[in-house]
UniProtKB/TrEMBL annotation:
One of its GO terms (molecular function) is deoxyribodipyrimidine photo-lyase activity. It comes from Subtercola frigoramans. Residues 183-200 have a biased composition (Polar residues). Residues 181-203 are annotated as: Disordered. It comes from the Bacteria. Coiled coil: none annotated. It is an enzyme of class 4 (lyase). Its cofactor is FAD. This is Deoxyribodipyrimidine photo-lyase.
Length: 485
């Protein structure tokens, strides 16, 4: 193997702590070249939605700052990952390329092809577990099959060897030994070249070209609809850990009892942090359990929250074993389900939160303003679309993909199929969330509703676009047509 520089390829892991690929590059002892590739052209890669692009822009800017503090720079490139990695290896004479694993089929095929090509050239290529606590291929049923039901899956997780402790962030003293340059970075000027930070300057061109972050057009401009996102969020690794500390101090104690109450601020707000890897599931696991805790999750808020982390693990387990989950019904009988063709005006009422169904409208407006929606309300809003309006779950999934800052190919699809009844471990087809009853139970004083629907209870608020009872009956009749399949 060559002793040239180490190329660290950042993807959904925009952090410096508990980053196995970066950690391995530091241990290897050669110069480190850090890169993020905006890949919207490789086959099978789904471009990010608008809200996720907003988050990515700011998270990359934060990552560049974290790396700069370590004496490293972040190079930005766009294009098909296979081509860009090959170009960078040629430009830098890289001796090794390290990355953390992805689990979608298209991503795995890209990574496998790159790894094979690099090894054929004598370049070390290694990938690492960093985004899930349990690798999907390590957990099987007693029959040697992938899990399709969450409860036994999570039981298997809790019975498996405990997740490894998080890796420490590199220190400036360690990385400084690898660098002689300024470590300066520029993500908001013209496409530029940066000073080499190599301990062996001859190994890498003195000026390594990088895209400027602004040139990627990730931020909305005409119009700028992101004011609510800026008010609600500060992306980045430091902010992720600050949010976790706030949750542990002020939300975890009431998490079990209050997490279904959307007006109560007890949710962790970790979902976009996990989506972009600003924090790792290993950091969550050990941060909530303590470094010396037994592998069995402790009772109380920690257990309830880590079970939600387990639901995310389950989504990636399904994505790995059943990659078609993102676009196809997991239960083939649903291929014959009589979905209604959505009229643009009808769909727009749901998207804009103007259905006349208060809890649904509040959730959809929260989504548009903040880029997230309370989990209980997500289920209600999704159920209203697929069951009360009989609109295909993929239509709703596409809207969430564009508007959620935590849009995740595994969780987004799995959760929509769960609500629709078309997925594994799905909600029973006869379960149709009644938004009025859900509001009475979980938002009895209408605090959440009036936060996002201030005209609720006034003559300005419209009547429901459909009768909840009649539309529920239509849904049950439609589901009955495929019951025997």
């Amino acid at each position: 193997m060559s002793d040239g520089p180490s190329l660290v390829w950042f993807r959904d892991d925009l952090r410096v702590a508990d980053h196995p690929a970066l950690h391995t590059a530091v241990e290897r002892g050669e110069q480190i070249v850090c890169v993020y590739i905006l890949d919207e052209s490789s086959p099978g890669i789904r471009p990010l939605g608008g809200a996720s692009k907003w988050w990515l822009h700011h998270s990359l800017a934060a990552l560049a700052g974290e790396l700069d503090a370590l004496g490293l720079t972040l190079t930005l490139r766009s294009g098909a990952a296979t081509d860009v990695v090959a170009e960078l290896c040629a430009e830098t004479q890289a001796g090794a390329v390290f990355w953390n694993r992805r689990y979608g089929l298209a991503e795995r095929e890209i990574d496998s092809g790159i790894k094979s090509s690099l090894k054929a050239q004598g370049i070390e290529a290694r990938s690492f577990q960093a985004s899930v606590l349990f690798e999907p291929w390590t957990l099987q049923t007693g029959q040697g099959q992938p899990y399709r039901v969450f409860t036994p899956f999570w039981k298997a997780c809790l019975g498996a060897p405990a997740p490894r402790p998080p890796l420490p962030a590199p220190t400036k003293a360690v990385t400084a030994a690898l660098a002689t340059g300024s470590g300066a970075h520029s993500t908001d000027t013209a496409r530029t070249a940066r000073p080499s930070t190599s301990a062996n300057p001859a190994a890498v061109p003195a000026e390594l070209p990088t895209d400027r972050l602004d040139s990627w057009g990730l931020l909305p401009t005409a119009p700028d609809w992101a004011a609510g996102l800026r008010e609600a969020w500060v992306p980045g690794e430091a902010a992720a850990h600050a949010q976790l500390a706030t949750f542990v101090a002020h939300g975890l104690g009431d998490y079990t009892s209050d997490r279904d109450l959307p007006a109560h601020d007890v949710t962790s707000r970790m979902s976009p942090r996990l989506r972009f890897g600003e924090i790792s599931p290993f950091q969550l696991w050990h941060g909530l359990k303590g470094p010396s805790a037994a592998r069995t999750v402790q009772p109380g808020g920690s257990a309830a929250f880590l079970r939600e982390v387990g639901w995310r693990e389950f989504a990636y387990h399904l994505l790995y074993h059943f990659p078609e989950i993102t676009t196809e019904n997991m239960r083939p009988a649903f291929n014959a389900f009589p979905w209604s063709e959505p009229e643009p005006a009808t769909l727009e009422l749901w998207q804009q939160g103007r259905t006349g169904v208060a809890l649904v409208d509040a959730g959809m407006r929260e989504l548009w303003k903040t880029g997230v929606m309370h989990n209980r309300v997500r289920m209600v809003a999704a159920s209203f679309l697929v069951k009360n309006l009989l609109i295909d779950w993929r239509v709703g999934e596409a809207w969430f993909w564009d508007t959620l800052v935590d849009a995740d190919q595994a969780s987004n699809a799995m959760n929509w199929q769960w609500v629709a009844g078309s997925g594994v471990d799905a909600a029973p087809y006869f379960r149709v969330f009644n938004p009025a009853l859900q509001a009475a139970k979980f938002d009895p004083e209408s605090e959440y509703i009036t936060t996002y629907v201030p005209e609720y209870g006034t003559p300005a608020y419209p009547e429901p676009m459909v009768d909840l009872g009649e539309s529920r009956k239509r849904a049950l009749d439609a589901y009955e047509t495929i019951r025997g399949s």
